[in-house]
Amino acid sequence: MKNVSIQKMRFEFGEVREALEKGEELVLTFRNRPLARLLPFAVKKPIKDDPALHFGDVASSLDPMTNTDMDHSIYDL
């Protein structure tokens, strides 16, 4: 765990935020004494091969349907 002073937190918050975004746990200190522990929220990584992300690939390969074709596929005419 890395120590971060209140002064650094106040004036260089961007670095603290980046460390938290990377998943680092930090100890917030005041006058060199531990004051609090900063923990990042669990980061959810996207699933690489999620079928929902490739839905447009499948749809673009389909031929356009006429109104009659749609009626037949929906109403089983």
What do these coordinates show?
The chain has a domain at 2-38: YefM-like fold (3-Layer(aba) Sandwich), CATH 3.40.1620. A three-stranded mixed β-sheet has the order 1-2-3. The longest helix is centred in the first third of the chain and has 9 residues, at 13-21. With 77 residues, the chain is an alpha+beta fold. It contains four helices and three strands, in the order βααββαα.
Short structural description:
This protein is an alpha+beta fold. The protein is built from four helices and three strands; from the N terminus they run E-H-H-E-E-H-H.
Spatial strand order of the main sheet: 1-2-3
Catalogue the unreliable spans.
none
CATH topology of one domain: YefM-like fold
CATH architecture heading of one domain? 3-Layer(aba) Sandwich
Radius of gyration: 26 Å
Please give the CATH class of one domain: Alpha Beta
How helix-rich are the residues, as a percent range? 25-40%
| SS-based class | alpha+beta
SSE arrangement, N to C: EHHEEHH
What is the overall silhouette?
rod-shaped
- Distance linking N and C termini: 68 Å
Q: How would you sum up the major sheet?
A: 3 strands, mixed
How is this fold's topology laid out?
Layout: E1 2-5, H1 6-11, H2 13-21, E2 26-30, E3 33-38, H3 55-60, H4 67-75
Parallel strand pairs: 1-2
Antiparallel strand pairs: 2-3
